[in-house]
Design brief:
Layout lengths: L3 E6 L2 E9 L5 E3 L4 H5 L19 E4 L4 E4 L2 E2 H7 L2 H10 L5 H12 L6 H8 L7 H11 L14 H26 L13 H10 L8 H13 L7 H11 L4 H12 L7 H14 L4 H9 L20 H17 L4 H13 L3 H5 L6 H11 L7 H22 L27
Helix pairs in contact: 2-9, 3-18, 4-7, 6-7, 6-11, 7-8, 7-18, 8-9, 9-14, 9-17, 9-18, 10-11, 10-18, 11-18, 12-15, 12-17, 14-17
The structure holds s-citryldethia Coenzyme A.
């Protein structure tokens, strides 16, 4: 198989190198295209364009494969922990017990938010959407860590930034949730694992039902959300990081990108859609018809994916976990039956089958978050908690890759041709 692609252009033949990845994926390297031809490529939504070479996460959308640093997501969900996965994504290999304990303890050492940040969170209206507070708090952290508010962090500073932001993010979510409830924020506990500590930061108090099984269910959800190669928010983190913006600004940009309902905001939109179906007598076939109607902007939230043209492996795991978690919690949630009915009908429907539209990570996750007592408007914040180590691993890989250039796509101009300015009296 030739390792170049031939491009016939205006009577000339250009040979473009072909790059092959470790899983056999192939790319045409167009880095010299414009210099040699004056042409650029155009690719709405970057559906056919690779932005980088990365060793962190591998997806095969046709086969429904997801691996972090080569480890299948199914095995990590079964046997690993969120903190161990954060280490794996960042450093490329599973940690020794000592390495895991060190990262875990560094996260546990982050006991509280800076006082000024707590005050910032408390200035938000109690009914504000949490994502605005989470994003603001993340970028505001740069004011409290000038030692990391820099464009060229050393490896050691990046080592310290991971536990710092993992520790802070669960404190930010907990503090905002309790602020919205009119309660004082709590401090992290040294005695609890990451998921248990987060649940405690949220729900501590009478009636808090934080069992090991509940914490384990949340830990698995965080593992499943930890990274997903060059999705919209990870790409945003890379674009902002490529301009040498600091880690807080870069991660805050990822949080903002995730808020969109076509991306991380979908988990909240799914729950709201299921509730609307329930309020309308549970007639999910009506919503399938709306989703297929080209004149109706409604989309079946939690369905479809840019990469997966098969089942999202995370959705399979979460769907299975739904039954277990609801049983353990003794929760009967009619929305789960509506979701299952919706999925069953969609997967038989020619419109969805033809377009390879399957449930994605967001379709069932909200059922579990709801069972855990997480408010719907905090579901996307939960996605932030899970995705944080993945964003940071992507940012670090970008910053440690020699020759990384600032992201600056080109365009094809379609506006007015040159024309002369005319005084307002002549217009
Ligand atoms: C996440 O990229 C990632 O990895 C993201 C993520 C991660 O972990 O980071 O996996 C997390 O964001 C998951 C996706 C969450 N979003 C949703 O559930 C929102 C609903 N889904 C869609 O809007 C859509 O499927 C996207 C945004 C996810 C993907 O959109 P694409 O790849 O741009 O596909 P498209 O919009 O061009 O759709 C192709 C066709 C169109 O129909 P035709 O023009 O061919 O007739 O499929 C249709 C679309 O109308 N379609 C849907 C649909 N999704 C696609 N029709 C109805 N309902 C849907 N959900």
């Amino acid at each position: 198989m030739s390792d170049t692609a031939k491009l016939e252009l205006e009577g000339k033949t250009l040979e473009l190198p072909i790059i092959t990845g470790s899983e056999g994926e192939k790319a045409i390297d167009i880095r010299q295209l414009r210099a040699n031809t004056g042409f650029v490529t155009l690719d709405n939504g970057f559906m056919n364009s690779g932005s980088c070479e990365s060793a962190i996460t591998f997806l095969n959308g046709e086969k429904g494969i997801l691996r972090y640093r080569g480890y299948p997501i199914e095995q990590l969900a079964d046997s690993s922990s969120f903190v161990e996965v954060a280490y794996l994504l960042t450093y490329g290999n599973l940690p020794t017990q000592e390495q895991l304990n060190t990262l875990d303890q560094k996260i546990k050492n982050i006991k509280q938010l800076p006082e000024g940040l707590l005050q910032l969170i408390q200035t938000f209206p109690k009914d504000a959407h949490p994502m605005g507070a989470i994003s603001s708090a993340m970028v505001a952290l740069s004011a409290y860590h000038p030692e990391l508010e820099k464009s060229d962090m050393t490896a050691e500073e990046m080592d310290n930034a991971l536990p710092l932001l993992m520790g802070y993010t669960k404190l930010i979510l907990g503090a905002f949730y309790r602020h919205a409830q009119g309660k004082a924020p709590l401090e992290s506990s040294d005695e609890k694992d990451y998921a248990s500590d987060f649940l405690n930061l949220m729900f501590n108090g009478p009636g808090a039902n934080i069992t090991p099984a509940v914490a384990k269910a949340l830990d698995v959800l965080l593992i499943l959300h930890a990274d997903h190669e060059q999705n919209c928010s990870a790409s945003t983190v890379r674009v902002v990081g490529s301009g040498q913006a600091n880690i807080f600004a870069s991660i805050a940009s990822g949080i903002n990108a995730l808020w969109g309902k076509l991306h991380g905001g979908a988990n909240q939109a799914v729950l709201e859609m299921l509730q609307e179906i329930q309020e309308n007598g549970g007639d999910y076939k009506l919503y399938l018809a709306k989703a297929k109607d080209k004149n109706d902007p409604f989309r079946l939230m939690g369905f479809g994916h840019r990469v997966y043209k098969n089942f999202d492996p995370r959705a399979k795991i979460i769907k299975k976990a739904c039954n277990t978690v609801l049983e353990q919690l003794g929760v009967e949630d009619p929305l789960l039956d509506i979701a299952k009915g919706l999925e069953e009908e969609a997967l038989k429907d020619e419109y969805f089958v033809k377009r390879n539209l399957y449930p994605n990570v967001d379709f069932y996750s909200g059922i579990i978050y709801r069972a855990l007592g997480i408010p719907t408007n905090l579901f996307t914040g939960m996605f932030v908690l899970g995705r944080l180590p993945g964003w940071m691993a992507q940012w670090r890989e970008l910053r440690e890759t020699p020759g990384t250039k600032i992201s600056r796509p080109r365009q094809i101009y379609t506006g007015s041709n040159e024309r002369d300015y005319r005084p307002i009296s002549e217009r």
